[in-house]
Design brief:
alpha+beta; 3 strands
């Protein structure tokens, strides 16, 4: 029994070490956010469709709204080009 516990702990440590060494996922702002009491605003923005968000909100007294970071994103920076004469 003790050998099994040691093996499980060793496997868990190896898994954590592997995950810690991997590169982080690219940041992506999904278009829909789950909002409500306890979640706050903008909420849990992890839904690519309104239907996915509503399915997650079902029975939880939560609602879905458009992600404000997507709707009111940062304005595009103008790229200036300079001509040499």
């Amino acid at each position: 029994m003790r050998n099994a516990m040691v093996a499980i702990l060793a496997l868990s440590a190896a898994t954590v070490a592997t995950l810690a060494g991997s590169s982080p996922a690219a940041a992506y702002d999904y278009p829909y956010c789950l909002q409500g009491r306890g979640i706050g605003i903008p909420g849990e923005c992890a839904y690519s469709t309104y239907a996915q968000c509503m399915a997650s909100a079902s029975g939880r007294a939560l609602s879905c709204n458009i992600n404000p970071r997507v709707a009111f994103g940062q304005p595009q920076r103008r790229v200036r080009t300079y001509r040499e004469y």
